[in-house]
Design goal:
It holds the Pfam family DUF5581. Keywords: Signal. It comes from Chelydra serpentina. This protein is of the alpha+beta class and 325 residues long. It folds into 2 domains: 147 residues, no CATH class; 103 residues, Immunoglobulins (Immunoglobulin-like, Sandwich). Helices cover 47% and strands 19% of the residues. Strands 3, 4, 5 and 8 form a 4-stranded antiparallel β-sheet that branches. The chain has a 4-stranded antiparallel β-sheet with strand order 7-6-9-11, with no helix packed on it. Strands 2-1-10 form a 3-stranded antiparallel β-sheet. Strand 4 and strand 5 form a beta hairpin. Helix 1 runs antiparallel to helix 2, helix 3 packs antiparallel against helix 5 and helix 5 runs antiparallel to helix 7. The longest helix is centred in the N-terminal third of the chain and has 43 residues. The radius of gyration is 36 Å and the shape is elongated. The termini are far apart. 12% of the residues are buried. The N terminus is likely disordered. Bound molecules: 2-acetamido-2-deoxy-beta-D-glucopyranose (NAG) (2 copies).
Length: 325
């Protein structure tokens, strides 16, 4: 381009030389400027592309919406009941054919070893719940860092630290994979054989998995107090509930006399509703419900609780104030 301009100007007369020299200089500058701009455009393009990679990650895997959902999921998992499920080794979870087998197997299993296995299950569940909480915190922190990079780094800084940002993205991506894998309760690590050789002609291959049951929760609309009785109802979220055994507890809050202290109790219930009678009127009671313990239960930390206040009898207000010393 420069040569071309020079050869053009060479044919001009000397009088116009200065003008053209100026023009050359301008052209030259414009070419250089364009090259610089080109370079800048390239850098800018790269910056935008890389920035978009981060933005996309923030909007997909690490989106606030998704993190919130994971939070809810963990809260739910903390309220679940965990059981050891005994499966023949070759069958997958959910396979209908194994329905008869586990009970038979349970009879073959050494009870003492099974008790130990349950302890392992409890510990594993606790650790899993702690790890999930921790992983989610790390993910949230990672998200904040990425947002911070985007908001505070200018183009040059951002590009200079791209390797670090890239590493961060890949670390977070791996963390997310671990997190998602852990959301599903896993297999139990069986250290010892659970079946004694004695008596069993053919030792079955078994595997143990942790299974969850959704939490039992009071139906707060349908549970209500009357003057001297309450009717309570509960349900299990997102699960077609088969008949189960529950354990209901109640307790009078702030008993005023020794006699009132016996206003409490534990009752087994086989349906998902129950009435408790002979309560005191105009008083607060606390009720809790959970599944009745079974042999394979390994972890159940949470139980739902509600407080209901019985109604006063229509004209009791006056009488009781008058009757009080
Ligand atoms: C740089 O990019 C802008 C807009 O993206 C464009 O208008 C301009 O022509 C580009 N410059 C060069 C030298 O390519
Ligand atoms: C990514 O993870 C590795 C290994 O855990 C760690 O050493 C490194 O510091 C992490 N990088 C960033 C940017 O977080």
């Amino acid at each position: 381009m420069l040569l071309l301009l020079l050869s053009c100007t060479a044919t001009m007369s000397f009088g116009t030389m200065d003008v053209y020299l100026n023009e050359i200089e301008n052209n030259l500058q414009s070419i250089l400027y364009n090259e610089e701009e080109d370079q800048e455009n390239e850098t800018w393009k790269m910056y935008m592309e890389r920035k978009n990679i981060v933005l996309e990650f923030l909007h997909s895997d690490l989106s606030l919406h998704l993190l919130k959902r994971h939070h809810k999921r963990i809260e739910l998992l903390k309220k679940c009941s965990y059981y050891i499920e005994i499966l023949p080794k070759h069958l997958a979870l959910g396979d209908q054919n194994h329905l008869m087998l586990p009970t038979t197997m349970l009879q073959l299993i050494d009870p003492w070893r099974f008790q130990r296995m349950k302890k392992v299950g409890t510990v594993q569940t606790k650790i899993q719940l702690l790890l999930l909480t921790d992983l989610l915190e790390q993910l949230e922190q990672g998200r904040e860092e990425l947002v911070h990079f985007l908001e505070t780094y200018d183009m040059v800084t951002f590009l200079a630290r791209w390797d670090l940002v890239k590493q961060k993205l890949s670390n977070l991506s791996e963390l997310m994979d671990n997190f998602l894998a852990m959301l599903v309760p896993g297999r139990l690590y069986v250290k010892h054989r659970l079946v004694s050789d004695v008596g069993a002609t053919k030792i079955p291959h078994i595997r143990l998995v942790l299974s969850t049951k959704m939490p039992v929760m009071f139906d707060r609309k349908e549970s209500m107090a009357h003057e001297d009785w309450v009717s309570l109802k509960w349900f299990i979220t997102s699960q077609q509930s088969q008949p189960e055994q529950y354990e209901l507890r109640f307790k009078l809050l702030e008993p005023r006399t020794q006699q009132e202290r016996i206003q409490c109790g534990i009752m087994p219930v086989t349906s998902n509703m129950c009435e408790i009678r002979n309560l005191l009127s105009d008083r607060s009671y606390r009720f809790t419900v959970k599944r009745a313990e079974t042999y394979t239960l390994v972890y159940e930390q949470w139980r739902d609780a509600i407080t209901l206040k019985t109604k006063p009898y229509p004209d009791e207000d006056m009488e009781s104030t008058m009757g009080e010393p």
